[in-house]
Amino acid sequence: MKKRILISLAVFSIFILSSCEGETRYNWYLDNQSSSAINLDCLNYYSKDTLVQNINPGERFPLEHSEDMGGDASALKSLTQFPYMSIINESGDTLQKDYSQLGNWEYTIEKVKKHPAIYEHEYSFVINDGDF
Predict the structure, then answer these.
(1) Structural domain 23-131, CATH architecture
(2) Which residues contact 56 (CB under 8 A, 6 or more apart)?
(3) Alpha-carbon span 101 to 98, nearest angstrom
């Protein structure tokens, strides 16, 4: 009987401690603010999926959604999510803006729940005519 109570307490403790960890949600977008449609060819590091997509002017295209255990309010230090990305406009010009630099992305980080801490990160790679 005593052993059963100890096992129950251990399972309950593990459940409580693991539920307090929180999580971080990441949403990645490509925002075409240029005057022409663009062709995206992109490799996702985690899923190994290749995205090939035409994106119209003014369209905000979702690139990826991922979640990590543990609440984290810090912006990513470097971008490894997309090891390859090629963007070409209707004129055949290749994007010159470096997608691998976090400074070229617009981002927001919002705490959506206090306990356990849940953060939502939203990263948008905005493309304008002058980026080609």
Answers:
(1) Sandwich (2.60)
(2) 32, 37
(3) 6
Task: Indicate the helix (H) or strand (E) that contains 1.
Answer: none
Q: Tell me the residue type at 1.
A: M
* Domain positions in the chain: 23-131
Q: Report the alpha-carbon distance of residue 123 to residue 117 in Å, rounded.
A: 20
Strand order in the sheet with 23-32: 60-69, 23-32, 118-127, 106-113
Q: If we measure between CA atoms, which residue out of 110, 108, 105, 123 comes closest to residue 71? A: 110
H/E element, 34: none
Using CA atoms, how far apart are residues 76 and 78, in angstroms rounded to an integer?
A: 6
The residue type of 55 is: I
Q: What are the pLDDT tens digits along the chain (132 aa)?
A: 666 655 555 544 444 445 568 999 999 999 999 999 999 999 877 777 888 999 999 999 999 888 888 888 888 876 778 889 999 999 999 999 999 999 999 999 999 888 899 999 999 999 999 999
Report CA-CA distances (Å) from 50 to 22, 47, 86, 117: 30, 9, 11, 32
